[in-house]
Amino acid sequence: MRVFVTGGSGLVGSRLKKRLRERGDEIAILTRRPEALAKEPDVIAIAGDPMTKGPWMDAVKNCDAVVNLVGEGIFNKRWSPDFKETLVKSRVESTKHVVEALAAFPKKSDGSPKVLVSASAIGYYGSHGDEELTESSPPGNDVMARLCVDWEKAAHAAEPAGIRVAIVRIGVVLDKSGGALAKMLPPFKMFVGGPIGSGKQYMSWIHHDDLVGQFLFAIDHANVAGPLNGTAPKPVTNAEFSKALGRVLGRPSFMPTPAFMLGLALGEVASVVTTGQRVVPKASLDAGYQFRFTDVDAALGEILK
Q1: pLDDT tens digits for range 92-113
Q2: Residue 109 CB contacts under 8 Å (≥ 6 apart), including other chains
Q3: Per-position b or e across 233-263, b if 16+ CB within 10 A of its CB
Q4: Cα–Cα–Cα angle for 152, 174, 270, nearest 5°?
Q5: Parallel, antiparallel or unpaired: strands 65-68 and 43-47
Q6: Which of 45, 122, 277, 303 is 20 to 30 A (C-alpha) from 133?
Q7: How many whole angstroms separate alpha carbon 108 and alpha carbon 166?
Q8: What 3-state DSSP class applies to 197?
Q9: 230 neighbors 292 (Cβ within 8 angstroms)
Q10: CA 291 to CA 206: how far, in whole Å?
Q11: Cβ neighbours of residue 31 under 8 Å, at least 6 residues apart?
Q12: Distance set, CA 263 to CA 81, 145, 267, 273 (Å)
């Protein structure tokens, strides 16, 4: 199978690329810097910018599946009006261009439909306290929720062409190479780690291996379509997560970070960390996906071993 990937150099994309290579798939990566991939084995570098239409769109013709991971990181900058616009365009406009490219070549060489597996985020649901959320729960109405709604709408636009569309709503990815965990490790290692704010907000975490596994599961299974929550089956509160991280590292976990201090440091985006959602992957479980890591201690232990 040949898989076309946008956002292939990011945290999730790098892990996905490795797994695709291990199982013998051909990988075509859309990149603004093709020279950076010149030495990578089994990777076809496609020069282009997903924010802009161009010759790169023709490369989708010979691919069986597209994984769309492109998007500006929400923690890259403070949320100014200009940066909010960048967050939207980097996801929605890029997805529209990917869908346009796919719609021009919607079938595989054997005549079966191609598949688009597109990223979204659990920010789709907004803040719901400790209410358990599944894929059928309604969207929220804050900045992140509206962004995710538009992002997913752009991906679903591929369906009228006969393309199967699956959307992975990504939670808190546990990976020491980046993301939330990488930012949490230094204070814990310096004996000043602990919960954020009240610590009562839920963290819907997922081991990076299971997140990649869900993307591959969506590619491989023709019955999988619509949203999939990219989270482990057992979310934990921020306080519980902090205790688990402290246990794995052999460090204390009682030094809280007040919510107002995080707000001063990060601005509006701090609400993503201080509110949280209690999200479970009902659709993935119902479809038969088997998680490797359902316990947060085991997941952290494997990552930080």
Answers
A1: 999 999 999 999 999 999 999 9
A2: none
A3: bebbbbbbbbbbbbebbebebeebbebeebb
A4: 65
A5: unpaired
A6: 303
A7: 17
A8: coil
A9: no
A10: 10
A11: 8, 9, 37, 45, 46, 47, 48
A12: 17, 19, 5, 10
Pair type for strands 2-6 and 26-31: parallel
What length does the chain have? 305
* Residue 114 DSSP code: P
Distance (Å, rounded) from C-alpha 51 to C-alpha 294? Answer: 36
Distance of CA 23 to the CA centre of its chain: 21
pLDDT(38) > 80: no
Tell me the torsion sign for CA atoms 212, 144, 84, 166: positive
E strand map for the chain: 2-6, 26-31, 43-47, 65-68, 115-121, 132-133, 164-170, 172-174, 202-203, 205-207, 226-230, 236-237, 278-279
Does residue 243 contact residue 300 with C-beta atoms inside 8 Å?
A: no
Which tokens sit at 68?
A: 């769309």
Give the global pTM: 0.94
